[in-house]
Write a structure and sequence with these properties.
Elements lengths: L28 E5 L5 H9 L5 E6 L2 H13 L7 E4 L12 E6 L3 H5 L2 H11 E12 L5 H9 L4 E8 L7 E7 L1
Parallel strand pairs: 1-2, 1-4, 2-3, 4-5
Antiparallel strand pairs: 5-7, 6-7
This protein binds S-adenosylmethionine.
The site of S-adenosylmethionine has 20 residues, from strand 2 and helix 3.
Amino acid sequence: MELFSTVPSHTVGDKRLRKKTFDIFDEIQVCNVGIGTGDWDDYLGYWLKGRGGLTSIDIDESICEIFEYRQQREQHPNPSKVLCRSIFDSDLPQEAFDIVTLIGSAINETGDFKKCLDSCFSLIKHGGYLMFMASLKYTPVEMLEEYISNTKYHIVQKTVYEVFLEYPFFISKIRK
Ligand SMILES: C[S@@+](CC[C@H](N)C(=O)[O-])C[C@H]1O[C@@H](n2cnc3c(N)ncnc32)[C@H](O)[C@@H]1O
């Protein structure tokens, strides 16, 4: 199971996405920002194969409660540690994660592109990665490139998917 292979759910089965992008190692710490339906968080938990921990952050109390309850009820083998917080809160763990993921509409829902990315990077250990996936309709790749050009971070991989006409998107891997 590979990390880019099911992003987003529309593209499951598309072999063009089946690239090995992130390695798993013992005690790896992964964090997803923006739970939504929680499908992605479920997937990440499986992807870790019990070798590391997953933390899921969301501002919405009911989303957090339902997600936690559902994972428990479905007996997810590697459930998330849920933090019901805003990505903008100052008490989030700093430089604690090897990989942070931010996908779908999460960045737009926070209402502040730059501040959201700044906060996501503050969660990542030095040398760790942000996996950022967004809709090209709301987030042109150039917006990300401009943001990165003002930082010391590096886009190590960026793939644009325009084959799905109703949902063109890109996925990027950015090293802190
Ligand atoms: C609609 S979901 C989409 C993301 C999800 N990962 C997906 O694509 O399946 C966006 C989530 O971001 C959360 N969110 C919005 N603003 C937030 C913030 N400031 N901090 C943390 N989560 C936030 C919302 O509560 C919502 O659950």
